[in-house]
User: What shape does this take?
Amino acid sequence: MSLFKVFDVAGSAMSAQSVRLNTTASNLANAESVSGSPEEAYRARHPVFAAVMNSLRGTESAASVRVAGIVESQAPAQARYAPDHPMADANGYIYLPNVNVVEEMANMISASRSYQNSVEVMNTSKQLMLRTLMLGQ
Amino acid sequence: MPINIDSALGIHAKALAVHGRRAEVLASNLANADTPNYKARDIDFKAALQQAQSGHVPLKATHAGHIQPAGTGLSSPLLYRVPQQPSLDGNTVDTHVEQAEFARNAVNYQASLTFLGGKLKTLLSAIRGE
Assistant: This one.
């Protein structure tokens, strides 16, 4: 019964999207975490998705998703001149994370829409399967 | 009235299996909507149904390298969808197209189910003779 595989596929998509939501939450939470040097500043994290092909022959139709890794953004940390700040360095600068809040919000909406899509797919497949089980009654 | 249940149920049992496989393919496309370099896939429903009807039994594959001969059972080849617009990350999934196809496939699946249910009810009433 191939519909059973839909649950695996949609479930893997939901777990991957929730990892994406987690990294977005972490980035947004740390958007204002200041530090005394550019090296110590928090860096925005983003997950990298990869498709999982279950067979090399290509006749296997189900391809689930996995999180291949989480990369840190290499954009430079923002320096802000704040000589009164307790964490300011010798030149009077503090360093803010390279998190782009607008980008993160867009990312969050995209992740939540994709998650909803997977939930819909799972619900539809469940209904189809339940109706198949009721066949002939 | 055919005595063979398989021929009494007609094309609908096969159609149900092909719709099930297509649901799997479309779910994979939707799941990989954000995966870089993923190419959206689909099956040619008409060809797949014809293959399913031809009644070839697939060979048993006990190793990942075993190759099924063309045109057996549900192993019709997966095709690639032609993208509507290019994307920078090499992904060719258009979520809305896939959603629409998934919904259509679900309705077709339910139609096949209804036909099958009707056939079964007909057979049952013939058996009971009420």
Q: What stands out?
A: Helices of chain A lie at 3-29, 101-133. The mean pLDDT of chain A is 90. The interface with chain B takes residues 1-3, 5-6, 9-10, 12-13, 16-17, 20, 48-51, 55-59, 61-65, 110-111, 114, 117-118, 120-121, 124-125, 128, 131-132, 135-136 of chain A (CB under 8 Å). The two ends of chain A are 20 Å apart (CA to CA).
